[in-house]
Amino acid sequence: MFITFALITLLGALGMLLQKNVVVAGLCMVAAFFGVAGLFVLLANPVAAALQIIVYTGAIMVLVLFVIMMLNSHQEEEAQASHPVQRWLSLALLAVLALGGVKLVMGSAGLKALAEKGSTMPQAMTLEKVGTALFADHLLGFEVAGLVLLAAMIGAVALTKRNL
Amino acid sequence: MDKLASLLHTTPATAWMVAKLVIVFGGVFSLAAVWTWVERRGAAMIQDRIGPNRAALFGKIKIIGLAQPLADGIKFFFKEDLVPHDANKGLFWLAPFLALVPALMGFAVIPFGRSFVSGGQEYHLALLDPGNGMGLLYPLAIGGMAVYGVLVAAWSSNNKWAILGGMRSSATMVSYEIGMSLAVVAIFMTAGGYDPSEVIKAQGHLPWAWNIVRQPLGFIVFFACMFAETNRLPFDFAEGESEIVAGFNTEYGSMKFSLLALSEYCHMMTASALMATLYFGGWQVPFVQDPSVMLSVASFLVKMLFFAWVYVWIRWTLPRFRYDQLMHLGWKAMLPMSMVNLVFHAWRMSQGH
């Protein structure tokens, strides 16, 4: 199960990077989101999986594809030849990031506990728990995020609609 | 069920799972096929015609034309399968499946009858057992995926009308999803849970305790949004025959067209089932406290097919909206209405009712 979803995620992400066609790349990204949603279900968090699909695949990617189709460029501009420095720099950064990520996971407290006690079935996440966490424990962050989103929305409307 | 399972050398749970898969997917798919016939007969009835009544099994058994979907299916399979020259071939093939699979999957979480216990094993009449943690978020999530079938079909055909249809439909779906979700959130709040079985239990068996009476405003919003989500008239902007040829499926023919059309009907079935579950007590039978399993299934089917008929009824009664009217309705009427509904019920709950 895990391998299937991980493969879907990775292949989707790879396809998105390697595809020349923008719409196909977008669809590959949808596949990657789906794989991530499947991984969330395996981690006993179906709520996150549902929200992932509703928000990312259901809304954001649709809007992205919408814009791509609006521009509707069938021929993409040729990318300029990248400098070799950029390539090496990105490779080095990627290596550092990957190493850091692996180190973080390996040194995490959860993994140590897993090695000592063995795995226990985690309690499934429910919408009620998400709501409590948002409105009781992280109220300030939630409100700030709401304010930022509101500001972004007003800004977007003000930018696109000159004569209100 | 136990005997059948032992015959097949499996546990009752596995046999039941397989049976449910066949019932749900097969049932929804064949209902959708039958509904294409109902739509044509209904249109004929409303327009004072007779409609398709000639198709007969083996040339003899003519059940008011009910064999029509079968004949249509055979015809579609044997038609020439054209792919436009400049189409994106892979995506052109993929699109009908992208449309059909979410349409069929959406039904999985909806309980179509009460659970029963047999031989110490509890059987649930829903593909995903209650308490799966996804609950009614699942049909919302899958419903959001429906737009990809239309979008991909539109873009891959490389046709101006198709792209216009696809863009109109994706904009519609995204705008109406918000109003719809807020209407559903109000139901989660009053039911105190988001699992369909909890929502049904909270409504009880008395019709005046159903959500349609408690939240009429929410129902109006949800009902209208479901028409936009399923791309049905008066909101069928993906097709709009009089304006953009046939919209997103202009270039489609043979079985691929049939799959796109069937996916619309499957969506209709899921949407009707959702309306019955959320606002009309699901499988609850009016005034019967503990209905038998068969009675509860019949009750659910009656409610669901009634709404499926309403879809047909409205399609042949109302004219199509204009696109700007649709956007006005979505953002300036549906969204505020569902927000008012949500805040009102939150206020009532805070007052302790």
How would you describe this protein?
The complex is a heterodimer of chains A (164) and B (353). Chain A has 164 residues and is an all-alpha fold. Among the domains of chain A are: 1-74, Four Helix Bundle (Hemerythrin (Met), subunit A) (Up-down Bundle); 126-164. Helix content of chain A is 79%, strand content 0%. Chain A has 7 helices and no strands. In chain A, helix 1 packs antiparallel against helix 2, helix 2 (22-42) runs antiparallel to helix 3 (46-71) and helix 6 packs across helix 7 (139-160). Chain A starts with a helix and ends with a helix. Chain B is mostly helical. Chain B has one domain (75-115, 134-350). Chain B has 13 helices and 2 strands, in the order H-H-H-H-E-E-H-H-H-H-H-H-H-H-H. Chain B has a two-stranded antiparallel ribbon. In chain B, strand 1 and strand 2 form a beta hairpin. In chain B, helix 2 (12-46) runs parallel beside helix 12 (293-315), helix 4 (89-105) packs antiparallel against helix 5 and helix 6 (160-191) runs antiparallel to helix 9. Chain B is globular, with a radius of gyration of 21 Å. Chain B starts with a helix and ends with a helix. Chain A binds chain B through residues 21, 23-24, 27, 30, 41, 44-47, 49-51, 53-54, 57-59, 62-63, 65-66, 69-70, 72, 74, 124-127, and chain B through 88, 90-91, 132-135, 137-138, 140-145, 147-148, 151-152, 154-155, 158, 163, 166-167, 170-171, 173-174, 177, 181, 188, 194.
The mean pLDDT of chain B is 83
Strand content of chain A: under 5%
Sheet with the most strands of chain B?
A: 2 strands, antiparallel
Indicate the proportion of strand residues of chain B.
under 5%
CATH architecture of the domain at 1-74 in chain A: Up-down Bundle
Number of helices of chain B: 13
| Number of domains as seen in the coordinates of chain B | 1
- Uncertain runs of chain B are none
Spatial strand order of the main sheet of chain B: 1-2
Distance between the termini of chain B: 44 Å
Share in helix of chain B: 55-70%
Largest sheet of chain A: none
- Largest binding interface between chains: A-B, 30 and 33 residues
Based on helices, strands and strand pairing, what is the structural class of chain A? mainly alpha
How many DSSP H or I helices of chain A? 7
Report the CATH superfamily of the domain at 1-74 in chain A.
NADH-ubiquinone/plastoquinone oxidoreductase chain 6, subunit NuoJ
